Amino acid sequence: xxxxxxxxxxxxxxxxxxxxxxxxxxxxxxxxxxxxxxxxxxxxxxxxxxxxxxxxxxxxxxxxxxxxxxxxxxxxxxxxxxxxxxxxxxxxxxxxxxxxxxxxxxxxxxxxxxxxxxxxxxxxxxxxxxxxxxxxxxxxxxxxxxxxxxxxxxxxxxxxxxxxxxxxxxxxxxxxxxxxxxxxxxxxxxxxxxxxxxxxxxxxxxxxxxxxxxxxxxxxxxxxxxxxxxxxxxxxxxxxxxxxxxxxxxxxxxxxxxxxxxxxxxxxxxxxxxxxxxxxxxxxxxxxxxxxxxxxxxxxxxxxxxxxxxxxxxxxxxxxxxxxxxxxxxxxxxxxxxxxxxxxxxxxxxxxxxxxxxxxxxxxxxxxxxxxxxxxxxxxxxxxxxxxxxxxxxxxxxxxxxxxxxxxxxxxxxxxxxxxxxxxxxxxxxxxxxxxxxxxxxxxxxxxxxxxxxxxxxxxxxxxxxxxxxxxxxxxxxxxxxxxxxxxxxxxxxxxxxxxxxxxxxxxxxxxxxxxxxxxxxxxxxxxxxxxxxxxxxxxxxxxxxxxxxxxxxxxxxxxxxxxxxxxxxxxxxxxxxxxxxxxxxxxxxxxxxxxxxxxxxxxxxxxxxxxxxxxxxxxxxxxxxxxxxxxxxxxxxxxxxxxxxxxxxxxxxxxxxxxxxxxxxxxxxxxxxxxxxxxxxxxxxxxxxxxxxxxxxxxxxxxxxxxxxxxxxxxxxxxxxxxxxxxxxxxxxxxxxxxxxxxxxxxxxxxxxxxxxxxxxxxxxxxxxxxxxxxxxxxxxxxxxxxxxxxxxxxxxxxxxxxxxxxxxxxxxxxxxxxxxxxxxxxxxxxxxxxxxxxxxxxxxxxxxxxxxxxxxxxxxxxxxxxxxxxxxxxxxxxxxxxxxxxxxxxxxxxxxxxxxxxxxxxxxxxxxxxxxxxxxxxxxxxxxxxxxxx
Length: 936
Fold this sequence. Notes:
Elements: H1 2-8, E1 13-22, E2 26-35, E3 74-77, E4 80-87, E5 96-105, E6 112-118, H2 125-128, E7 136-143, E8 150-161, E9 170-181, E10 187-193, E11 200-202, E12 206-214, E13 220-230, E14 240-243, E15 245-247, E16 250-256, E17 263-273, E18 278-289, E19 295-301, E20 308-310, E21 315-323, E22 329-337, E23 343-347, E24 349-350, E25 360-366, E26 373-383, E27 388-389, E28 393-398, E29 404-410, E30 420-422, E31 426-434, E32 440-450, E33 460-463, E34 465-466, E35 471-476, E36 483-493, E37 498-499, E38 505-509, E39 515-521, E40 524-526, E41 531-534, E42 540-548, E43 554-563, E44 568-572, E45 574-576, E46 579-585, E47 592-602, E48 607-608, E49 612-617, E50 623-629, E51 638-646, E52 666-670, E53 675-676, E54 680-683, E55 689-692, E56 695-696, E57 724-728, E58 731-732, E59 737-741, E60 749-755, E61 760-761, E62 764-769, E63 784-793, E64 803-810, H3 811-816, E65 824-830, E66 833-836, E67 839-844, E68 848-855, E69 860-865, H4 905-935
Parallel strand pairs: 3-9, 11-18, 20-28, 30-38, 41-49
Antiparallel strand pairs: 1-2, 1-4, 4-7, 5-6, 5-8, 8-9, 10-12, 12-16, 13-14, 13-17, 15-16, 17-18, 19-21, 21-25, 22-23, 22-26, 24-25, 26-27, 26-28, 29-31, 31-35, 32-33, 32-36, 34-35, 36-37, 36-38, 39-40, 39-42, 42-46, 43-44, 43-47, 45-46, 47-48, 47-49, 50-51, 51-52, 53-56, 54-55, 57-62, 58-61, ...
């Protein structure tokens, strides 16, 4: 029955043996153990432990290959190892399991070195692991340092017992694993270089290294060499390692030197066995690589710098600092080449006077023993291996003879002779120059410029080019400044000996007109432009100009007089001591602006016509008037007198216009009797003076009610032809802003201001009102408030940016035209059409709204409705015949009405529309009056 039970019930136990190796880092080997109990009950079920290539299986003996360094069955261990054994218990045998680990030194006599048994005699789970039928575990820690170095076979003795005693146990004892215990580094018996001697100096090639290495326990697994670079001067380079290849005879490598830098190399060998025990005690080899020529750091002489020259005999001391960082300098030679094929050497001696000069080489040379020439000294230095440095040089020149100039002339095919007067051309220079000692280095011709007045201009040099026979250059006179030129030849040889003895050619170049240095008009003296006014008392006017020519002479001078009406008169003037003068009778000239242009010619026909002066001839008195309001006041009433003035010629010099003894042009006083105002005196720039006074007559007061007789009843002065403002400037500087204030409120314009880009002389601005547009001006379709004409002289051509025109519009006009404040703009007539100017709305007072506009120029302007505002078309009327006398300006405080003659059609319609409500008001007033009387 028990046999059947064993046949029917087969318990499979899986046992895993885990060997954990601690030797700095763990290595793991696994073994599977099978319990396939098939024996009788008296045997208690046996463990059959066997292995094939490390895998334990059932039914075979535990066998291993003989020792083979590359076999996977060999384990290399050292230090403390942990062996963990996990078994599945066989419950039918009381769970008694003992395990013995045996260490056998297989490489010697095969004797057992050490047995360790882990015994469990209790049959419980106290030691064998977790409870349960199918789990048991053993842990065994072993110190391999207890064993000497060698190759060991680790055997596992597994015993399955029924009572915890060995007498009834079934034992299978078989071999396990080969294990190496090795704590000794390999032995290096031979290490050398086969193709060079130790300590050799080389420049390249290949060095063969050989090493014989063995190990008493395991085997030599790996070998390498370390090369450390150290220079002779004590500095350390970068080291590196090379792995040696292994063959049947040992370890070796071929080191290619072309990949290595120069230096002194020491070689150390590293040998590793299979447990990585390292032998690095052998470092007996060295060699030096030197492919670099000695370093020449400083080449000097006892004279200053490279390329020095001298013309007398002397002693030259040549010095060179030479060193070699790897090997040693063996020789230094100074090689001298004078450029004509002759070369000789001077050997440098090493200076040993002190340690600091240990690398300095010196040679002495006496120039009395050498011929004249330009020498190149090349330093040639060799080291121990024959590396040559010949890159460093120093030069010196020895020549005391200047070049010889045998011919100097220019080409006269264009008629250019020596000492000619020229305005332009090309000079072809030709020189023949040679040097008896060396060669000609450079030939230059120096042009020295001297003016007729004794001053010196800026000279310059022209370097000549060499051809087969001589030196030549073509000089374009258009690149030269005017002056009297003397030509000097400078010929240099290679050591800078100079021949400058020849200067036989000269010419005069003049393309510049005479210079007008001073112009005197009347009693005004200056240099540039003038603006002046000539009055009634100056009938004779003198004109003087100081004119000279720095190169040739002034030949003729003319004064050209031009007037604004287009007439021109030329007068040839005479000279006294370089001053050219003429006196002009002004009675020959009409009133207006005149200019005098000076024409000055020199000997070669160069003309200066850039200088001129301007003056205004003004014989007409200014216009001045004083108006008093009211003109017929009653006693005690206030009378206000206003002075206005203008000048259509040279312009008013009196600015602002004021009454004598007062500060402005308005006087107010309460009157009781008839009288006159203070004198208003004005003067123009020509010195013309005119005065005016205003008057009033006092009338008796009346008892009737109503408003007084003075004033205009709220009306405004119309823009009548002849009302204007004018201003003339003697000069306006560049960037300066000028302005024309307009006091006459009837003009609509209150101020014109502008700036100029450059200084202008005799500038003027005139602002006129116009009753209508001329027939030559295109009509304008807009509501018109004012027509203004602005004329200028010497302003628009130098205008900087735009001019600003400030103007004002009566509020009553805006209301009558049903326009808003921002419906107003200024329009300008230009190039046959009207254009709207940029207009800005400004402040306002009780009577006016103020505006400003920007204009690029001056012509006819309209103040009115801006474009884009819905309104009826208004056509400005044709200008009527001009009025001979101006109309006095209405007082500024009285509001103005629309200009007569250009009232838009819509205004007439508006008047008729407003007539209806006025009549209604009158009728209602009559009815109210009648009703009131009837009620009384």
